[in-house]
Amino acid sequence: MATKPTHIAHELLLRAHSPEDAQRIFTEKVKQKPLLLRPTENDGANARELRRRARAKKQEHRKKQTKPKPLSARQKRELNIYAIPDDARRYAIYEPLHRMWVGYIQEVLGQGSLPVTAAAAGSKLCSADFHGAQVEVVRSRCVGRVGLQGIVVKDTMFTFQIITKQNELKIVPKEHSIFRFELPPPGHDLDEKDGPRNLVFEIHGSQFQNRATDRANKKFKQRNLPDL
User: Fold this and answer.
1) Pairing between strand 149-155 and 199-204?
2) HEC profile for the chain?
3) In the predicted model, what is the mean pLDDT of the chain?
4) What is the pTM of this model?
């Protein structure tokens, strides 16, 4: 007497095949079929890698929180970061800076700059830095500024900040102002008594309404200017 099949696959095979074929197919294809498994992964290594990534992410997040953000331009103005303190508003402090500036501007003009012409010296002065220059306001729409003299301590986009001999800080707008400065010819010292006469320059502040760093790449163009 044939035994009753106990496996559903064997029972289905009996419906389509004879008992002998069904038993053979069931044995070869189901009971003895090899089961291919993927190799097991090292859970310990994965756990260590996950912990390492979590620590790195946490450290990066902590660095972002501790790193201070740069100040905006408005915050810098409110904190007066670039303001000159009262104890530094003394004319004697900036006299060595003026001497350095004289040597610098003589190198800018060059030894072969004599005689000085607007075409030759104009482009060089337009790209020069005026920190340390001793200037005098000779023309301005504001009469009260005419005759003001001092050393430039800050050359901003729209103003010259000047320290006078009275140890006062004056902010002079560049627009609608003409500034004059003198310096000995190239090759001569500032304190030389028997040397040639100083070179005298007058610059229109309206043409210098840019930062000193931006003027380095600015090209000089001759143009007619309206009267002040």
Assistant:
1) unpaired
2) CCCCCCCHHHHHHHHHCCHHHHHHHHHHHHHCCCCCCCCCCCHHHHHHHHHHHHHHHHHHHHHHHHCCCCCCHHHHHHHCCCCCCHHHCCHHHHHHHHHHHHHHHHHHHCHHHCCCCHHHHHHHHHCCCCCCCEEEEEEECCHHHCCCEEEEEEECCCEEEEECCCCCEEEEECCCEEEEEEECCCCCCCCCCCCCCCEEEEEEHHHHCCCHHHHCCCCCCCCCCCCC
3) 82
4) 0.63
Rounded-to-integer distance, Cα 183 and Cα 179, Å:
14
pLDDT for 27 equals: 87
| Banded model confidence at residue 35, pLDDT cuts 50, 70, 90 | confident
Confidence of residue 26 (pLDDT cuts 50, 70, 90): confident
- Among the listed residues 185, 164, 162, the one whose alpha carbon sits nearest the alpha carbon of residue 172: 162
